[in-house]
């Protein structure tokens, strides 16, 4: 084949692999952005945890298919094992670096399995068997996926596959391991979630969030120091990444609040500490919180579930939705069911006022769906 054909195979396979089925199925059939739930991953494991077995199995099958189809078709058309491997590897890259998701995506395990089924089915059986064995022993999906990925090029080498096949499978396995780097970090910290582990109850999660916010505020107000959360003592949900908002009330009125749409830290525990500390000193409408005030304060933590640009105030329900408004370097937010807020327009104007954004400024408004704790 000439260079143009190789490029065509690579590009076509990459585009097939980049189809974000997990994201689309969650958005179209369930109305949620799967990236804002659970682990934030678009793959079958997270879809199954958040949306149920049927959705997870469908996503898994489609992700396997988009790895199998390019590799198998290319192998049959060209008769070249290397071409089939190239196609499958590009599909895995597309899944992990999808242009539909701003070059983010899943971890490539299911799509990598499809690659193996299309080109080297014996290694696929080996890897899948290893995955089930490790999962049974450890109960960690991430550990099973990482070790199964590593086992594939090893088994290919032992089974006498061509060097180019072993190298290609090693590259694909490296990508899978790299995409699990956050899981590896949580494993080292002892905070990775096991299959079958029940999520924290609402009461225990609420207590953990409020206590963490309170301790963070008190430490920063008294000593100017941020505390370091002990993830081993906190619910597993706080070890996952995600946006949070910390609201501080005094005598029933909002004293200060800080939060963001995008996670700025590797887990929600650190997000709570960060925004609690910011709320102490950076509220644009109030003076910094002083130590004598601390006994009078109450806390609410909001875990961000979804956010989307708002184009029409009619789509905003202030009893259920939060709102965030951005303009230049200013940002203001109001959470749902705020006392005294009776209309969407009033909620937006209060968020604008909190940030000091002029009424005539053309600002971006976001609708927020949050989980209130406190």
Describe this structure in words.
This protein is of the alpha+beta class and about 375 residues long. The protein has two domains: about 5-190, no CATH class; about 200-374, 2-Layer Sandwich (Glycoprotein, Type 4 Pilin). Helices cover about 50% and strands about 15% of the residues. It has 13 helices and six strands. It has a six-stranded antiparallel sheet with strand order 2-1-3-6-4-5, with helices on both faces. The longest helix is centred in the N-terminal third of the chain and has 26 residues, at about 55-80. The model has no long low-confidence stretch (mean pLDDT about 85).
Please give a handful of descriptors for the protein shown:
52% helix, alpha+beta, Glycoprotein, Type 4 Pilin, 2 domains, 374 residues, elongated, single chain, six-stranded antiparallel sheet
Topology:
Blueprint: H1 3-17, H2 21-30, H3 44-51, H4 53-78, H5 81-96, H6 109-119, H7 121-138, H8 141-158, H9 163-179, H10 181-189, H11 202-223, E1 244-250, E2 253-259, H12 268-281, E3 297-309, E4 322-327, E5 330-334, H13 344-355, E6 364-373
Antiparallel strand pairs: 1-2, 1-3, 3-6, 4-5, 4-6
Helix pairs in contact: 1-4, 1-5, 2-4, 3-4, 4-5, 4-6, 5-6, 5-9, 6-7, 7-8, 8-9, 11-12
